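Handout, tutorial session.
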Amino acid sequence: MLKSLQLQLDATFGTAVEAHHLTMKSLMVMKKGNNQHYKRAQSEAILQEFDGLLAFINLLDVKSTDKCIIPFKIIKSDIHLIHLLKSSGSILIKDLQGNKTYTINPLRGRYIYLPAGLYELHIPKGQSHLSNLYFRCKIFRDGNERPFHFLHPLIEAHRSQSIYSCVSIDFEVGTRTRAHIKHLVSNLKKGKLENEEHIFTAVKELIRLSSEKIFNEYERVDGNEKTALALHDSIRTYCELEGHSFTLTKLAEDFGANFRNLNKIHFKYFNKTMQQYKNEVILKQATDLILAGNPSSNVSDTCNFKHRDTFNHFFYRHTGMSPTEYFKTQGK
């Protein structure tokens, strides 16, 4: 599989060194992996990589005397499954072109769709150990992604090759998750046909396990409140990806539930309908673009309105002003 994630560890830790120069040990050892070791003063990093046909797997261990920033480049759009296995604090992934920041807390995981571009990985002081794998999204086909509603916006972003990054809701990384990752990396084999079956089975198990974790945390326990939060997050993500053209009925398909019931749940916890929240998100996108000096025709296109007149009517209905009037009064 194409190595699309390029961590620029030398920018932070200097030239790669031999393993015996480091005092830190990897949290997990990747069998048959390609290893790189870095050391600058008292800060150290170990990168282990394995290139499979169906997935590219990374393990990164960092020990730093201060918080550090590791720049990285994405060559090809992929969905990444990241687990923060151990850390003294949260890590941040900064999308430099999209001006977005995603947080992953210790012992938590997330799926992140990252299009080609430049990014930064912010790591706290102390030791951090994380795993990342990105896989061929063609494993989702013939509707087999239907049960994983938390992945639907990311899968759709990948299929449309969206230029905007997006993230799933986060989930717990517990004993079983760590055991699955350890089993995956400890049993890798180069030049063996059964290796790809091993990787494929492990990827499927990690996806299923994350789905179980999300269900238990966000749906089974105080299910309505967690569902409302997931709805809120999905509406925002779809609006960022599809703009005004996004239809809320898609959520009923994603969640496998009646639209009216979902709307009632959202209203109960946020005191607004899903349509009202969608309008808020779109309006915020539009006002930010207008205040940045974009003409209304560009704003209409960026927010994916079918016609410019439709956008102008939407904007006036929610602000009482035309885009030009809004810029004149609010843009000072």
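The second record follows below. Compare its token runs with those of the first.
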Amino acid sequence: MKKSNIIIATDLSARSDRHVERGLAIAKDLDCQPVIAHVAAGALTGDGHERADVVRRLRRDFGPQVESWKIILGEGNVPEKLAEAAIVQDACLIVVGIARFNNLRDFVLGTAVDHLVRHAVVPVLVVKQGAHRPYARLAVATDFSDCSAEALKAALALFPHAKIDLISVFHVAYPGFLKADGVAKEMAAEAREEMEKFLTRYEIAADDRARITSHVIEGSFEGVMWAWMDEEKADLLVLGTQGRSGLAHAAIGSTASRLLETVPSDVLMVRKRK
């Protein structure tokens, strides 16, 4: 992908270190400029003292590498300012954590992520885990919509060395009926055919296709994705925020919200561009 900037939000707390470190690692891998964004709760004085304090605290935690970072300050509504910064800084990604909130549930079910994902023009990476190693395996959900295609393309571009499991989930109504097994086989075959058309329609390059393994799985979307992340130990869950099915209904709809709350992995949210 073209060289760009990565917005890395921080509230300067100790818990924010993990997503700052993840953002820095991604920026290095993509040869992007890290832009450290701190949004103050109160008004800035404009005399430079706040900036000096932010730089001092970052240097304390991250050492002399801070001198090569771009650091921006803002005040007011955190998600609004981050979304604005992504435009001004020509960013390709916003990296956030959960340090500004009491716990993950507060972060997910409040308005912050909802606002940020709905308004940001670039993908939003929600980091929960430490950046101990690069993302090696990604789980990308698809309902074969334009939005899920954008989610797949974002995953391929942002993480060019990762293997990708592209997952389509289908549900059989009334599974107890005698003909349900036959119906499930028919639906699975249709989904596999649709998967191939999906990859062809959106012109996924051959090199990228080689990184993708497709899966068609019966069950509820939430249950299948949670089990996949837990059992397969994928590093990152990638979700589109608008699409044809429950996986992508509204920016932080009930399904995406529960997955953000419950899956142990980091989550990349990709909004369909207008």
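Points raised in discussion: The beta strands are 5-9, 33-40, 70-75, 91-96, 124-126, 137-141, 163-170, 212-218, 236-240, 266-270.
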